[in-house]
Specification:
Distance between the termini: 9 Å
Shape: globular
Strand order of the largest sheet: 2-1-3-4-11-10-9-6-7
Order of helices and strands: EHEEHEHEEHEEEEEHH
Structural class: alpha/beta
Radius of gyration: 17 Å
Number of strands: 11
Helix content: 25-40%
Strand content: 25-35%
Number of helices: 6
Length: about 240
């Protein structure tokens, strides 16, 4: 791996324009971390080796194995595996969480309970992990997903679950963490996802009439969500200098 420089840098894999780093990117920059965003949906290649200090893999509407729809996914899974082998910190958000699980030997499938939407209650299951230790015992996070990790990679440490008992946060390997929720997403961003799902017939976790209340709830909870998850992201950023 490259020598650590005074400026910590993170490669961000953004899968689509509607799923930007948003608040997570802001929190990382607040910690002095520079973001290098690669946008493979615009033709930018995903590197085969991590040349910076960490890897952030964001969400997207595709599935973790929808390789025909998003042909860069195999390269993203390979990069996650490579980073894990070299003990480089990896953080996966929603799709990124699922890609990390698949890359390391787990399985992702449609949630049998259906689409998960809105602000979900989070229950911390472990307080010894550095990221979990930064998460308050009771908190919420935005979710907007159809798929979940149904089989975690061997050796996975469950860090948190949601109010549906789904795996919400996990440590999949020594340097690889995943969050099924969207701590980065504001109500405005989630509103775009809801509108897209409605237009494409994929809005199954709520009725169109329920969406405004869901977005209002997210807006109301935003200070709480930021207070809970900003320190988690800061804890991950703190690991970047330990390589």
């Amino acid at each position: 791996m490259p020598e650590h420089s005074a400026v910590r840098r993170v490669l961000v894999v953004e899968h689509q324009e509607s799923c930007p780093p948003a608040l997570v990117g802001q929190w990382l920059e607040d910690e002095g971390v520079e973001l290098e965003v690669v946008r493979p949906y615009q033709g930018e290649p995903v590197p085969d080796r991590l040349e910076v200090d960490g890897l952030l893999v964001l969400g997207g509407s595709m599935g973790a194995t929808d390789d025909e729809r998003a042909p860069w996914l195999p390269a993203t899974r390979d990069l996650i595996r490579s980073a894990a082998t070299e003990d480089a910190p990896v953080l996966g958000v929603c799709l990124g969480h699922q890609l990390a699980a698949v890359a390391l030997g787990g399985e992702v499938a449609r949630n049998p309970k259906g689409q998960t939407v809105g602000a979900r209650a989070v229950t911390r299951q472990d307080g010894t992990d550095p990221l979990a230790a930064a998460l308050p015992a009771g908190s919420h996070v935005a979710q907007w997903n159809d798929d979940i990790v149904v089989t975690a990679p061997p050796g996975t440490l469950t860090l948190a679950t949601n109010d549906r008992d789904d795996l919400l946060m996990a440590r999949f390997a020594a340097s690889v963490w995943g969050i099924q929720g969207h701590p980065e997403a504001t109500a405005e961003i989630v509103g775009v996802w809801a509108a897209n799902d409605q237009a494409e017939g994929g809005l199954t976790g709520a009725t169109p009439q329920q969406v405004p209340a869901i977005l209002d709830d997210l807006e109301r909870r935003q200070p709480e969500i930021s207070a809970a998850w900003g320190p988690v992201v800061a804890a991950w950023a703190g690991l970047l200098s330990r390589r």
